[in-house]
Amino acid sequence: MSTACYVRVSTEEQNLERQLQSVQSYAEEKLDTELSDLQIFRDKSTGTDTSRSGYRDMMETLEGGDVEHVVVHEISRLARSLQDLERTVSRITDNDVAIHFVRDSLSFGDGKEQPMNRLQMQMLGAFAEWQARVKQMNTKEGIAARQKVDDYHHGRPPLGFEKDDGQLIEGENYDQVCAVLDMVQKEELSKRKAAHELNTSRSTISRCLEREKLY
């Protein structure tokens, strides 16, 4: 039987190394899993839904009956929706597979679950969902305030947005733009690398940072 390790970041530029080290160490030290029995599933995409290739591959693999444990660095890496989180955990444990969240110190389906574990998971999942919704709400408010500005009606839409009958709407890469700008603000990524990641210019990145309410 093998152990599946799931890791996820939001953009191509972000590094999976810290999560990989975390889940592999846990699998080896806490679950006595040999390196040869580890299966790593990776995603570089938003966690607001479960339409991710690595996630889908992992779920299909564990339903095949060869996986005993799933290890994830933290709850927000698996899902940013409480509904998706609970559905995923139930789907995993219903297949007689245990799931472990390293940073959150929570495990389910291993026969050692404490009465408060489920409540803690729900609280952490709800907080992750709240963070995502607050960000979306702030964005919508920022867009509404800026719809009145002629530049947004007649000029090119800001990075990550499209226009629909003169109104700004989120583009397909909006989540990626937000994640990259957040890394620049935290000084985890240079403007040059951010521009390369988003296929734009450093001056555009600077303008986006000045329009923080949009993102």
Topology readout:
Blueprint: E1 2-9, H1 17-31, E2 38-44, H2 53-62, E3 67-72, H3 75-78, H4 82-94, E4 98-101, E5 106-108, H5 117-146, H6 150-154, E6 161-164, E7 167-170, H7 174-185, H8 191-198, H9 202-210
Parallel strand pairs: 1-2, 1-3, 3-4
Antiparallel strand pairs: 4-5, 6-7
Task: Describe what you observe in this structure.
There is one protein chain. With 215 residues, this protein is α/β, with parallel strands linked by helices. The protein folds into two domains: 2-124, Resolvase, N-terminal catalytic domain (Rossmann fold), CATH 3.40.50; 149-214, Arc Repressor Mutant, subunit A. The chain contains nine helices and seven strands. It has helices spanning 17-31, 53-62, 75-78, 82-94, 117-146, 150-154, 174-185, 191-198, 202-210, and strands at 2-9, 38-44, 67-72, 98-101, 106-108, 161-164, 167-170. The chain has a five-stranded mixed beta sheet with strand order 2-1-3-4-5, sandwiched between helices. Strands 6-7 form a two-stranded antiparallel sheet. Helix 7 (174-185) runs antiparallel to helix 8 and helix 8 (191-198) packs across helix 9 (202-210). The chain is elongated. It starts with a strand and ends in a 5-residue tail after the last helix. The model has no long low-confidence stretch (mean pLDDT 81).
